[in-house]
Structure formats: structure tokens, C-alpha cells
Here is the input.
Amino acid sequence: MTAEEECVVVVDLKTGKYEPESDEKVIEHGQLSAYQLAVQQGLIEGADPGSLAGARLVLVAKTLSNSDYRVAHQHTLDGQARDEFLRRVAEAARGMSASSFTAQVEAHCADTQWRVQPCRIHTVPAVSA
Here is the structure.
């Protein structure tokens, strides 16, 4: 890509306190990966799929001194990373489309430092008929 060519970068603004704040923590960030996949598939009007140059989380709650925000980078979703993300989506779709599934207790469920109530994933009733 030359300097004259336009780059497309997916940016997701995060205002919560409990968002991943480093490049290492956003490598497999599913939401950013899904946005990148949408660009790659030509689903975002005005965004050239061939110009995709990765994704960023812009965090306004977890800032560094003398800064109003922090940026965490996710490389362009391609090759093995893209294949692995598509496998994750397919696996999640198979599980969610089954007649029933078990909600697994994960780290966010047991974080009693800031959560007083039980994890909503385990307490909100099904929305399907």
C-alpha cells in the first residue's frame, strides 16, 4: 500500500472500566475480529476491503497520565488468525443453535471484586419461544 492509498482501520470506542487495555489482550478480541471480517466481506459501505489495516480499541476509561485515551491494536485479520476466528464463530453458532447448551462459568462470572450480583448470562431467561 502506497502513501497515497487510503487505509481502513476499524475503531471501537470503549468507555467501560473493564475492557482489555493492551495489544496482547486484543489479539483475539472477538468484536474487533467480527468488524474486520465485515470489512473484508465488503459489508461496510465506503470501506475498501483491500485497504483494511487492522483494528483498534480506543479506551477512554483506562488512560495513561497526560492522556485522555489509550489505544490497543489488533493486527489485520488474515491467514491463520482469520481461519481461527471463523472456527470460533462456527463453533459458537453450532453450540447456540442446539436445542440446549450449558453456560460455562468463566473469569467474568467469578469476579467478585466489582460484581455483587450473579453473572447475567446465568440468570437471564431465554428470549426464544
